[in-house]
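pasting D-2-hydroxyacid dehydrogenase for the record, 314 residues
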Amino acid sequence: MRIYFTFEPRPDLREPLVEEFPQVDFVFENGLSNNELQEADVLVTYGEDLNDENIQYATKVKWIFVASAGIEKMPAQAIIDRGIVVSNVRGIHKTPMAESMLAHILAIKRALPWVYEQQKKNEWSKKAKQTELRDSTALILGPGAIGSEVGRLLQAFGVATIGCNRSGNEAAYMNEMVSFDQLAEALPNADIVISVLPKTEETTHLLKADHFKAMKNDAIFMNFGRGNLVEETVLMHAIRTGEIGYAVLDVFEQEPLAADHPIWTLSNVIVSPHISSHSSRYVERSLAIFKPNLEKWLRGETDVENRLDLSRGY
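structre below
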């Protein structure tokens, strides 16, 4: 069996993998080669480097392991037509992303951006507008692995959590659950609104102008899912008119964000360039999911963990 990685793990991660599976011919490259695709039985990729043309070369590939949670940039129909099994690393982002979200929330609550600016100006001032996180309420759109982890951390700080998903069914570390249909009614109760929703047809522009009008004027809005959640003009209006107090944005409709985009200049916005999931342990955690799946695959089992339905987008 030939397994083609379109990225090269660090030696301390790559070498144990090769030793553990001596029956496998591993190929590691930084980039995608159609020549290698023609020979591969399994493809390991971040997903963004694949297109329809590539799939035409991948005539032997039966399984694509995506070392990412997002699959919206993959050539879904071409993969579906070929009947290729696709799985991903859903769940590995929960630690770095939850820590990133909590860090931003605490920074805003404790006025850290203001403190840093005062230091740059060599100014000793005690006029920081600081508030407490305790006894606030957070509404989390998409309380899956990531949303539940940030819910767990927030509850430890004395925050009440409201989860919101399509069904309104129970989710871990949520004090209360609502469905998408009940979202507008729940928003006035939230001090913090966090989205970690994936990109699907249903989530595209799910948040509309009326949703932002329903939020508290001092609410912190955080989008760490996908930029399709809200139309850019709607979000900009909500920020500029004070319908919300603060926005922390890790994702955008168009990425990378243009250098001349006006959102860079807004004082009540934190721009995080889609890095909240980054961690020195990212590939390590990806391989921890890949290895047991590979053991299954070598035994002829196709019920790999985190198997995806590309027709649904997740």
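The first strand starts at residue 2 and ends at 5.
The mean pLDDT is 96.
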